[in-house]
Amino acid sequence: MSWGTELWDQFDSLDKHTQWGIDFLERYAKFVKERIEIEQNYAKQLRNLVKKYCPKRSSKDEEPRFTSCIAFFNILNELNDYAGQREVVAEEMAHRVYGELMRYAHDLKTERKMHLQEGRKAQQYLDMCWKQMDNSKKKFERECREAEKAQQSYERLDNDTNATKADVEKAKQQLNLRTHMADENKNEYAAQLQNFNGEQHKHFYVVIPQIYKQLQEMDERRTIKLSECYRGFADSERKVIPIISKCLEGMILAAKSVDERRDSQMVVDSFKSGFEPPGDFPFEDYSQHIYRTISDGTISASKQESGKMDAKTTVGKAKGKLWLFGKKPKPQSPPLTPTSLFTSSTPNGSQFLTFSIEPVHYCMNEIKTGKPRIPSFRSLKRGWSVKMGPALEDFSHLPPEQRRKKLQQRIDELNRELQKESDQKEALNKMKDVYEKNPQMGDPGSLQPKLAETMNNIDRLRMEIHKNEAWLSEVEGKTGGRGDRRHSSDINHLVTQGRESPEGSYTDDANQEVRGPPQQHSHHNEFDDEFEDDDPLPAIGHCKAIYPFDGHNEGTLAMKEGEVLYIIEEDKGDGWTRARRQNGEEGYVPTSYIDVTLEKNSKGS
């Protein structure tokens, strides 16, 4: 099947068909372009969606901790990767399909134009041959008619007796001329006819089939290119299916990683205050006034009630020992809040929460009304935050459990920083040794400022660690002793440690409270023992400062280079030595900054 033999006379139809093929190709290219735009917009919207719901991590405290949150953020990451794959699909389609189609459409238009021009030229040449043949034919026909007229004129004059011989001779010459011209036109017509027939045969059997064949091949290549683009269109999507499947599997794994028990435990760890729940309210016996009135009125009643009063006196004595408000609370005292929260100071400056019980008449009124006002820990925490103000360095504004966790986190961070500084110091020392052995590599003195800075950082970090460990030991001591204090409080019916007036009435106004002597606590930590000794420690040696030390941190002792100090406590492995000046000022100095000389009889003490 060939267009050249089957469609030899359908040049205009083939022209329209090839134009339709190119239009269809461009239409499909437009479809691919719109699909690319959809993919790009889809990917962009997905990325905007992920960006909208991703957390803005401004601090470590806001990082997601719950497994449900972490799973959601993992899903967002997978969705972001999925959006990236949609962009890959769009890029693949744009490069492999749309770009190829546009280039091929341009080449196709050029080729089609060339083939159609060749066909038109062949047709024009054939038409020209036909015109030449037709002209020679008409000329031959005209010359033949003229020759016939000349012959008729000659015959008429030859038969006419009246015609002169000259007229006959002239007619004869005219006949011969016309006959000769008719023969020449006849030969020319025959040659033109033969030429036209040859060109026509060549046109319809050689030229046109060749041109149509080229058009057919061009149209078939267009169809093949469309097929390849269809396949490439699908392959662009199929290539990313494995990665998209991994993204979806990641989302499923993120969903499976949600652990409700772990989230519940995180809630406990995040909000656990470490406080004990409020204890039972003690029973306040107001019938003592009734029994006293009866005993004052009649002697017999006092004898009858003596047994009861003895029992009640025993209870009253016990209550007199346990109650903080005394044996005779005043009934005219105004009712106050059932529970108040205030801070009590320890010798080392830290603060903790204590609870206070309202007067007896308030308890009885509340029991009668049947509406106990037990405060929630939310209100306690709110009151604590109001009284404490902004966050403190030792986290004393937090509940004990949260304070312990914060201190432990800070100690871990400081230890990591200390390890980095120690590694840097070791590297600088090694570099210094290399410079000393090979002076051409560098000046050892150029490393001295960096070494001094690193040592200052190490000393500062050690001081910070020491200080935070002291606070941590304080918190752990409180936490450990809270059980014993709680047991004692239960036995004594919640003897309060709060604000109390001399007559036993309770006030909630911080400006009107009468404070008693501060309650002494038995949990002194190491840090307090080191800095609160009344008697000065004896000197066990002396030292000389090799480097100057500013001593800005609390508990440290500033010194100048070459200064001589007394040693009152050796380095315990933390890099600090306790020293004293001649004027009695004491503090810690870095062991690496001094040259220590201990007395022989004092070493190891």
From TrEMBL:
<dbReference type="Pfam" id="PF25610">
    <property type="entry name" value="HR1_TOCA"/>
</dbReference>
<dbReference type="GO" id="GO:0008289">
    <property type="term" value="F:lipid binding"/>
</dbReference>
<dbReference type="GO" id="GO:0005856">
    <property type="term" value="C:cytoskeleton"/>
</dbReference>
<dbReference type="GO" id="GO:0005886">
    <property type="term" value="C:plasma membrane"/>
</dbReference>
<dbReference type="InterPro" id="IPR036028">
    <property type="entry name" value="SH3-like_dom_sf"/>
</dbReference>
<dbReference type="InterPro" id="IPR057870">
    <property type="entry name" value="HR1_TOCA"/>
</dbReference>
<dbReference type="InterPro" id="IPR011072">
    <property type="entry name" value="HR1_rho-bd"/>
</dbReference>
<keyword id="KW-1003">Cell membrane</keyword>
<dbReference type="GO" id="GO:0031410">
    <property type="term" value="C:cytoplasmic vesicle"/>
</dbReference>
<feature type="domain" description="F-BAR">
    <location>
        <begin position="1"/>
        <end position="263"/>
    </location>
</feature>
<feature type="coiled-coil region">
    <location>
        <begin position="130"/>
        <end position="174"/>
    </location>
</feature>
<dbReference type="GO" id="GO:0007165">
    <property type="term" value="P:signal transduction"/>
</dbReference>
<feature type="domain" description="SH3">
    <location>
        <begin position="538"/>
        <end position="599"/>
    </location>
</feature>
<keyword id="KW-0206">Cytoskeleton</keyword>
<comment type="similarity">
    <text>Belongs to the FNBP1 family.</text>
</comment>
<dbReference type="GO" id="GO:0006914">
    <property type="term" value="P:autophagy"/>
</dbReference>
<dbReference type="InterPro" id="IPR001452">
    <property type="entry name" value="SH3_domain"/>
</dbReference>
<feature type="compositionally biased region" description="Acidic residues">
    <location>
        <begin position="527"/>
        <end position="536"/>
    </location>
</feature>
<dbReference type="InterPro" id="IPR001060">
    <property type="entry name" value="FCH_dom"/>
</dbReference>
<keyword id="KW-0968">Cytoplasmic vesicle</keyword>
<dbReference type="InterPro" id="IPR035493">
    <property type="entry name" value="FNBP1L_SH3"/>
</dbReference>
<keyword id="KW-0728">SH3 domain</keyword>
<keyword id="KW-0963">Cytoplasm</keyword>
<dbReference type="Pfam" id="PF00018">
    <property type="entry name" value="SH3_1"/>
</dbReference>
<keyword id="KW-0175">Coiled coil</keyword>
<feature type="domain" description="REM-1">
    <location>
        <begin position="397"/>
        <end position="474"/>
    </location>
</feature>
<dbReference type="GO" id="GO:0006897">
    <property type="term" value="P:endocytosis"/>
</dbReference>
<feature type="region of interest" description="Disordered">
    <location>
        <begin position="476"/>
        <end position="539"/>
    </location>
</feature>
<dbReference type="Pfam" id="PF00611">
    <property type="entry name" value="FCH"/>
</dbReference>
<feature type="compositionally biased region" description="Basic and acidic residues">
    <location>
        <begin position="476"/>
        <end position="490"/>
    </location>
</feature>
<keyword id="KW-0254">Endocytosis</keyword>
<keyword id="KW-0446">Lipid-binding</keyword>
<dbReference type="InterPro" id="IPR031160">
    <property type="entry name" value="F_BAR_dom"/>
</dbReference>
<keyword id="KW-0472">Membrane</keyword>
<dbReference type="GO" id="GO:0005938">
    <property type="term" value="C:cell cortex"/>
</dbReference>
<feature type="coiled-coil region">
    <location>
        <begin position="404"/>
        <end position="438"/>
    </location>
</feature>
<dbReference type="InterPro" id="IPR057871">
    <property type="entry name" value="HR1_CIP4_FNBP1L"/>
</dbReference>
<protein>
    <recommendedName>
        <fullName>Formin-binding protein 1-like</fullName>
    </recommendedName>
</protein>
<keyword id="KW-0072">Autophagy</keyword>
<dbReference type="InterPro" id="IPR035494">
    <property type="entry name" value="FNBP1L_F-BAR"/>
</dbReference>
<dbReference type="InterPro" id="IPR027267">
    <property type="entry name" value="AH/BAR_dom_sf"/>
</dbReference>
